[in-house]
Fold this sequence. Notes:
Shape: globular
Radius of gyration: 19 Å
Distance between the termini: 45 Å
Number of domains: 1
Order of helices and strands: EHEEHEHEHEHEEHE
Helix content: 25-40%
CATH architecture: 3-Layer(aba) Sandwich
Number of strands: 9
Oligomer: single chain
CATH class: Alpha Beta
Largest sheet: 7 strands, mixed
Mean pLDDT: 88
Amino acid sequence: MKKKRRTIYYSDPVNDDFASNSIETKKLPKGFKYVRKNPFWRFFEFTVYHFVVRPLIFGWIKLKFHQYFVGRGKIRKARKTGYFVYANHTGTDLDAFTPSMLTFPRKDFLICNPDVTSIPGIRNFVVMLGAIPVYTDIEHARNFREAVATRIKEKKAVIIYPEAHIWPYYTDIRPFKDTSMAYPYDLDVPCFTMTNVYKKRLLPFVKRPRVVSYVAGPFYADRTIPRQQAKKKLREQIYNEMKNTVDRFPKYEYVHYEYREPEDKSDAI
């Protein structure tokens, strides 16, 4: 009997989240350090990331998704300044690990939901792997911004998922805000897009799609116009590039998404 394709119903393309985890988001602890300068920490971070985790990441992503890049060489010149990468948010392990393959041999840093630092016992570990959790209260706001600027000054890549919420195997680009477009403007560095496209495997009995990651850019914020206008302009460039990329290829739906009208709760007691 043929297995039915999984269907996910959504009503809000901006705020719905289908990460399928039961993590209880916790606030960052007081005095949370985004950037660690302790030499022992840095030695352990370097060793774990480059000699333990990265080889495992490569094997896992290649085995599960048969992933490869198109246009990866475009980021080479940006390694002299540091840069941002905007990507579509369509998987948990894929989105966590693919940037590390993109930026190899250098380390990447990922702006992420504080969920990843809410799992008991592994907060330090995920920070070592490059997580920059979005601040949960105003006391961390300045340190968060300084951490992003520090990574750019170190000539590293900072990865951003502007869609914010995970939609597994989604084949289109969802609308997103221009909030994160402030970083390339404020720091005056280039940005790129990495658009993951799902394609049907050649072997008919393998249903899980393969992933091809298309890299485009560089794009620059227009610093000749006011900041807010520049953010909107850059957002349109980023969105259109990602949208045009997914539309160039047949959409292989491993998971089907179907719109459903939101429930009317106005009559609820």
